[in-house]
Amino acid sequence: MRCPCCSEKLYVECCEPFHLAKAIPKTAEQLMRSRYSAYVLHKVDYIVKTTIPAQQAKLDVVAITTWSEQTDWQGLRILKYKPISGVPQAKVEFEAYYQENGERKTHHEVSIFLKIQGQWYFKDPTV
Ligand SMILES: [Zn+2]
């Protein structure tokens, strides 16, 4: 199957190795994509463990699960990927598309990612 993150690659060659913990994303963009496909495939554990460790206990796992399962995901587009020079941080601007009550909606967000001990994490602005 094609990867849900819209990379045009096969899932096994794209986000699956990250979901199975066989590899870790090398860039914040890869992490962003793999988190989106985790939402599509309802891999909530992956959403949690790729959020910065200090925030993980504060995540509302029930809400994440509901959002993941009840959303009719339609696609992802990365608009801008910008590593921030000098610090282990990156910004990813993206749009995620979904369908709600027969209407196509867009979720637009600029996310911050941090690299901690060699691994990229999502910084949740709501926690
Ligand atoms: Zn992918």
TrEMBL record:
It comes from the Bacteria. It holds the Pfam family YchJ_M-like. Signal peptide: none annotated. Residues 27-124 form the YchJ-like middle NTF2-like domain. Gene3D superfamilies: 3.10.450.50. SUPFAM superfamilies: NTF2-like. PANTHER family: ADENYLATE CYCLASE-ASSOCIATED CAP C-TERMINAL DOMAIN-CONTAINING PROTEIN, UPF0225 PROTEIN SCO1677. NCBIfam families: PRK01752.1. This is YchJ family protein. It comes from Pelistega suis.
